[in-house]
Structures are given as C-alpha cells and as structure tokens.
Specification:
This protein has 426 residues and is an alpha/beta fold. 44% of the residues lie in helices and 10% in strands. The protein has a single domain, classed as TIM Barrel, CATH 3.20.20. Helix 2 packs across helix 13. The longest helix has 33 residues. Bound molecules: 2-acetamido-2-deoxy-beta-D-glucopyranose (NAG) (3 copies) and zinc ion (ZN). Keywords: Dipeptidase, Disulfide bond, Glycoprotein, GPI-anchor, Hydrolase, Lipoprotein, Membrane, Metal-binding, Metalloprotease, Protease, Transmembrane, Transmembrane helix, Zinc.
C-alpha cells in the first residue's frame, strides 16, 4: 500500500466518523428538544428576548384609585391579593406579576380622558408624566427609565423593566407644536393621535361603522388627518417620536402611513377581519403596515378580541396574531396587552403574568420558529423604534414646525373654545 492510498483511507475514515458523530449529535439534540417541555422552551425564548409591551394603563388606575399618591399603593406586592385593588376589575398589573410574565419593557400610558379635551387635558397629561417619573424613581429595583431603543436593551441587560412614556390621545397637546416638543423633552416617545374623540386635526376610530356601531354618531371632520395634523406628523418624525395610530379612523391610519417618513406603530390594536371593531386594523391597512416597515402590537382586551361580547381565551388572541401574520409576515407584529385599560381579558391572559401562555399556544401551532417568537416578543418593535431614531438623525437639518393652528379652521369645525384663551393664526 502506497502512502497516497493510506492517506486517502485515513481521510475517508475520518469523514465517516465525523458524519456519524454529527448525525448522532443532531438526533440527541432533537431528543433534548423534545424532552424540553413547552414551558421550558418558552422560558428560553423570553429569557433571550423579554416582552416589550406597547401599552399599559396602570398610571390611569393610580390616578383614579390612589389620587396619584404612591404612598397609597405597594406595586412590589401582588395587588390581586389587596383588599381594594384586588376587587377592582381593571387592576391587572404589578411588578411581581410583570416579572412572572417575563416583561422587559413597557410603554406606560400617559392618558387623559376625552372629556378633558379643550379644558385641562394638558395639565392632566403633565400629572401623568410626573406620576410615571415618580414611579420609576420609587422602584429602582424593578424599573429603569428608557428614552431610546438602546436604553431598552440596557435596562433589560440590567434585569430591569425598561419604562417609557406613551401619550394616549392628541387632545393631550390640544393643537400645539410647543406642547408636543415639551412632552418629547420630558421623555414621551410615542403619541397616539387620538383616543375615542376627534381632535381638531385627526379623526378617531368611532367615526367608522363596524359591527359594534353600524351608524356612528361621531362624524369625520378632518378627512382622517387635516393639513395641520400632517404638520404634527411631520414634527413627530423630526423629533423621533413614534406615531401611534391605534384609536384613529381608517382614513387617518392610511394618511399617517402615507405621509410619515418613518415607520409608525399601532401600540394596541388587533385584526378587523377577526373582530369587526373600529379599534382594529383592516386588511388593506395591514398591507400598508408591511410596506412601510411598521408594526401592529396586538391587544388582548376582550372587547376588541371577541366581537360577540364573550370573554374568549388565548386561542382567540392567537387567531388575531395568525391573521395579521398571514398578511404582514412575522416581522410586523408585536404585543400591546393594554392591561389596566379594560375590564375583561381572555381566559389564560387574565393579567400581566400570563404572556407565556400566548407563546406556548403559538409554539403549538407549529408555524412559529424561535426567531419568529423573539421578533414578536420585542425585536420587531426595537427595529421600528431604531428606524424612527435613524430617520430623526437624517432629518436633523429639517426646520421645525412653528406658529399656531388657524382660528377660522377651528370655527368652521365648530370647535368649542369657551375654555381656551390661546392665540390662533387668522
Ligand atoms: C367593572 O367595574 C365597573 C365599575 O364598578 C362596572 O361599571 C363594570 O360593569 C364592571 N365590568 C364588569 C365586566 O363587570
Ligand atoms: C378556547 O375556547 C374554544 C371554544 O370555547 C376552545 O375550543 C379552545 O380549546 C379554547 N382554547 C384554550 C387554549 O383553552
Ligand atoms: C362649550 O363648552 C362650555 C364649557 O364646557 C359649555 O358650557 C358649553 O355648553 C359648550 N357649548 C356648546 C355649543 O357645546
Ligand atoms: Zn387605548
């Protein structure tokens, strides 16, 4: 036997051994994976990428139930066992349950009711921002403030819940570029363009007919978003503030998606095709979400998950997610549970400790890879937030919006200015 032949035989044997070892390794890994329970697989996924939730209304509950006095409430305890909070049907959030739910970041809603519009909406929004700041300061073992996508990742690295501010409702700024900019400087990183009422510059979702309201009494006034509203959108792009189009009319969704030069978000909305509620996103809009690199953060409140008035369960939320995915793919979905912002949540998603149940259910469908589920949990919203920051950097030389809204336009829309002494352009 010559040397070449010997080398060839040795090489061939080595290759054979390597192949056998690799095959055995793959088989062992597969067995290991099968041995890991669904629970363990979900834990690993949410350890790698904790949940980044688009909307939580705890601050509104603290306003209503504790008069914004943080001495009246211990959020480091399980509030479901508390004698008052445990009985309130909108209290589903506290820090132990957020940790159990594997939540790594939240946009806390700085919300004021539509009844404050053109009255003290700005004052109340300031109080809610102050409350969120005091909350983060009081619980440094649980919370860490975040103003950027990088801050979210840092807080998660530090095992803290990244805390961001989302302003819910354009009435919070009345019609002022100055107030918008001040809220941004205080830390607000998204603004929902409306709540349930029109502002003098954007129409809200109750103008759209749906199975819950076939003949809406709220009428469109702004063709979705008025010219002035588009200037607010432009200023938000310049600031790097995410434009949230949950709660707005379909026409307003379409216009925001068309005119925003950065991706936009639905911080808490589900699929209109599954539950025909005006708060949910129609298929045609879902296609625009994909086209613009935007995101729908699916919400859990039974009122928009089930249109038949029943409570529903995890499978119902899975239906919404699967439907959205069928149009956008897994890159444009996130989660915005909106806990504490509703009184009924589906079985299996009763409070903010239950997110892992949703991931178990999605794994069981067989449609979701580990990577897909990490995107859903948080990577998609991080990507969108980064794109908004990137656009802000590109726009750094764009001139800011200045001046006031036009008074004649307000008169034409019959905006009630009884409580307003502000100046307008005429
Ligand atoms: C929740 O409580 C409020 C206030 O007590 C009540 O009006 C509402 O009907 C309750 N919701 C449910 C689903 O019981
Ligand atoms: C949810 O409810 C439906 C209908 O009642 C049922 O078929 C389904 O198994 C339930 N899903 C879960 C996860 O309990
Ligand atoms: C305008 O608002 C004031 C103060 O809330 C109220 O008293 C008045 O009735 C309103 N006017 C109209 C026309 O709605
Ligand atoms: Zn809302």
């Amino acid at each position: 036997m010559n040397v070449e032949k010997a080398i060839l035989i040795i090489a061939a044997s080595a290759l054979l051994v390597a192949t056998v070892l690799m095959t055995v390794n793959v088989l062992v890994n597969q067995l290991d994976n099968r041995k890991l329970s669904l629970e363990q697989r979900v834990q690993t996924i949410l350890d790698n990428q904790p949940i980044i939730d688009g909307h939580n209304d705890l601050p509104w509950n603290i306003r209503n139930l504790a008069y914004n006095d943080l001495r009246r409430i211990n959020l480091a305890s399980d509030l479901s066992k508390h004698e008052i909070w445990g009985k309130v049907n909108t209290s589903y959030t506290d820090f132990p349950r957020l940790r159990k739910g594997r939540v790594g970041a939240l946009f806390w809603g700085a919300y004021t009711d539509c009844s404050s519009q053109l009255k003290d909406s700005v004052e109340q929004t300031l109080e809610q921002i102050d409350l969120i700041k005091r909350l983060v300061k009081k619980y440094p073992n649980y919370l860490e403030f975040a103003f950027s996508a990088a801050d979210i990742e840092n807080a998660i690295e530090n095992k803290k819940i990244a805390s961001l501010i989302g302003i819910e409702g354009g009435h919070s700024i009345q019609f002022s570029f100055g107030i918008l900019r001040m809220f941004y400087s205080m830390g607000a990183r998204y603004m929902t363009l409306t709540h349930d009422c029109n502002t003098p510059w954007v129409d809200a979702s109750p103008v759209d007919p749906s199975s819950v309201d076939k003949n809406p009494t709220l009428l469109p006034q702004n063709d979705g978003i008025s010219e002035f509203g588009l200037r607010i959108v432009k200023e938000m792009n310049r600031l790097g503030m995410m434009i949230d189009i949950s709660h707005v009319s379909q026409r307003a969704m379409e216009k925001a998606l068309k005119h925003s030069v950065a991706p936009v978000i639905f911080s808490h909305s589900s699929a209109r095709a599954i539950c025909d509620h005006h708060r949910n996103v129609p298929d045609s809009v879902l296609r625009l979400v994909k086209k613009t690199n935007s995101i729908v953060m699916v919400t859990f409140s039974s009122a928009v998950v089930r249109c038949d008035g029943t409570r529903g369960n995890v499978s119902d939320v899975v239906k919404h997610i699967q439907h959205i995915r069928s149009i956008t793919g897994p890159e444009h979905i996130g989660l915005g549970g909106a806990y504490d912002g509703g009184d009924v949540f589906p079985k299996g998603l009763e409070d903010c400790s239950k997110y892992p149940n949703l991931f178990k259910a999605l794994l069981k469908t067989g449609d979701w890879t580990v990577e897909d589920l990490e995107k859903l949990a948080g990577k998609n919203i991080l990507r969108v937030f980064q794109a908004v920051e990137q656009k802000r950097n590109e726009l750094k030389d764009q001139e800011m919006e200045q001046g006031f809204i036009n008074g004649e336009e307000l008169d034409k829309k019959k905006v009630n200015l009884t409580c307003i002494t502000a100046n307008f352009e005429r």
